[in-house]
Amino acid sequence: MGDANMRAELGSPGRRLGTLARHLGVDYSPASSSLMASHNASEIVTPSTTAGSYGGSVFANVVQAPEDPILGVTVAYNKDPSPVKVNLGVGAYRTEEGKPLVLNVVRRAEQLLVNDPSRVKEYLPITGLADFNKLSAKLIFGADSPAIQENRVATVQCLSGTGSLRVGGEFLARHHHEHTIYIPQPTWGNHPKVFTLAGLSVKTYRYYDPTTRGLNFEGLLEDLSMAPHGAIVLLHACAHNPTGVDPTLDQWEQIRLLIRSKGLLPFFDSAYQGFASGNLEADAQSIRMFVADGGECLTAQSYAKNMGLYGERVGALSIVCKSADVAVRVESQLKLVIRPMYSNPPIHGASIVATILKDRKMYHEWTIELKAMADRIIRMRQQLFDALRTRGTPGDWSHIIKQIGMFTFTGLNREQVTFMTKEYHIYMTSDGRISMAGLSSKTVPHLADAIHAAVTRIK
Ligand code: KET
Asked: Where is the Aminotransferase class I/classII large domain (predicted)?
């Protein structure tokens, strides 16, 4: 392929930056040397002039980028010397003692792996560990899924949920006729960045209604019904982040009918399977409804939360196709996306997952540990709700017990959050989201005091 063709195929970096800048509402012109950044767009796109003169660094004009809105909360937390500090920013599970948890079944799988002398450190294929891919598809689509039986699913191991979304986004930018992706408003903060840099054009659909603290179902249907034919729709499979608000099964069915009748392409982000209800099958229901109708969809799976494999970066992208021969060709193109990006994925985490998923006893043990994590989060919801009621904190806090998954979208505003961090050393994202998984019975009273003070002192 000639250089010009290659550029045309990939889309120029300038065009991608331009698209990202437009999406984020900044004035970017590749001809000029600076980017007039508003809010936080500069963190990813700011090109800067280089010093170029002898002695000075060629990077002298590189500007300091802001911290990530979610991972930056942990950076600030780590710098705080206070003994009462609590990190409710990142969605990472903690025990009642406030410690990170490695599941027993994960430890056991790792022991088996290190004790097996036949295991080597060779490169995996570009698509990753074959066993892992098959088992991941089964986990999300169901063991008896016709799509799997008919070999219509192309699955590739990727770098956790984020990497799966990015590879899927890049594949769509190259091979799908419609480059617009609709994401919910609000959504996980990394979604717009991942998809814009993948070469897609990001638009939003209404999702959350702050007045009811529930789903804006009318708005959602209206916005998706206006989307152009073929547009991609990003859906959170369960435990919507940050709102904790999921459609009911009836509402999912209506969303499915609309998506299929308009010829839209669903792209599921499944980062919390098992974390919403404690049940892996129930949390995959939305996706399975779409696969059951024989239509196409994409799914990005993460094992960060449900197996506690955060730093191992284990995930999978599955593309459900109409026929086996399409799936073979799709997989061949996914390899062309992955090879120049990171060549092939890491072996360790995927081997842990495959070991657990293929052994009936270990699988069972995992479901029990997973349920225990989900149940502890649900207990934290009840305890926080009770603590606010006891304090007579003004407002209706029932959404704390109604919302689903790792997070509570509290409704606290930016000033109240800043106050809680400054006065109570409670770290959370500025949109008022708290990670219930970071809370324990010991820290609930402290958080309730902070919320009470914030809402009574700051309107
Ligand atoms: N999708 C959603 C909806 C999501 O919340 C996360 C992570 C991911 C994908 C990516 O996870 P990965 O570790 O790449 O498998 N969310 C938490 C962590 C983060 O922001 O990276 C969070 O929202 O706190």
From this structure: 85-451
